[in-house]
């Protein structure tokens, strides 16, 4: 009770008095729904386009052989997001975001650092196949460089469905 109410009551009282000065507090009380977006964050539904725009794609330098393979994987990534949106909806798109960043929704102030996509060209020793990996501390998603969309989709689905997450499920 002390932490939530008594400790901040002075600051809240001064805030309320400041809002009364210009009649804002009365306007808020009369039209609470009109002011709700100013005071409460309501996450917008995730779409494939939103996720595509959110992630910064980090490609190799122009002219390198790796770049061509990465551009193919970028197309797979975009197609995968569209497939997930059509088949499973915003909930699974939130799962993709959580896999990469640890957050199911875009935070009110955005991400810092911005989410990024990098590419896994080499297969680690002791690993039988390429799987996507993520580092949620730096909001980085590492996508495997594969030649066929079906393989890409299979590895993405496997990784997302077999991830423990952050205790949110």
Question: What structural class should be given to the helix and strand makeup?
Answer: alpha/beta
* Total domains: 2
Overall mean pLDDT stands at 88
Give the strand order, joined by hyphens, for the main sheet: 1-2-4-3
Sum up the overall morphology in one term: elongated
Number of strands: 4
Describe this structure in words.
This is HECT domain-containing protein. InterPro entries: HECT_dom, Hect_E3_ubiquitin_ligase. This protein is an alpha/beta fold and 169 residues long. It has 2 domains: 1-39, no CATH class; 48-162, 2-Layer Sandwich (Hect, E3 ligase catalytic fold). Helices cover 52% and strands 9% of the residues. It is built from 8 helices and 4 strands. The protein has helices at residues 2-6, 9-21, 24-30, 32-39, 48-54, 65-87, 90-101, 149-161; strands at residues 56-57, 116-120, 133-135, 140-144. The chain has a 4-stranded mixed sheet with strand order 1-2-4-3. A hairpin with a 4-residue loop joins strand 3 (133-135) and strand 4. Helix 3 (24-30) crosses helix 4 (32-39) and helix 5 runs antiparallel to helix 6 (65-87).
């Amino acid at each position: 009770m002390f932490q939530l109410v008594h400790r901040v009551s002075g600051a809240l009282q001064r805030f309320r008095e400041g809002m009364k000065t210009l009649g804002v507090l009365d306007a808020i009380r009369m039209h609470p729904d009109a002011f709700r977006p100013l005071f409460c964050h309501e996450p917008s539904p995730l779409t494939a386009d939103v996720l595509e725009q959110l992630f910064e794609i980090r490609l190799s330098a122009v002219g390198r052989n790796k770049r061509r393979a990465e551009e193919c994987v970028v197309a797979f990534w975009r197609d995968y997001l569209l497939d997930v949106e059509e088949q499973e909806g915003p909930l699974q798109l939130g799962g993709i975001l959580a896999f990469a960043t640890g957050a199911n929704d875009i935070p009110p102030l955005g991400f810092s650092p911005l989410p990024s996509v990098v590419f896994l060209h080499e297969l680690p020793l002791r690993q039988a196949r390429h799987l996507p990996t993520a580092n949620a501390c730096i909001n980085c998603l590492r996508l495997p460089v594969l030649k066929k969309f079906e393989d890409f989709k299979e590895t993405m689905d496997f990784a997302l469905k077999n991830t423990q997450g952050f205790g949110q499920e």
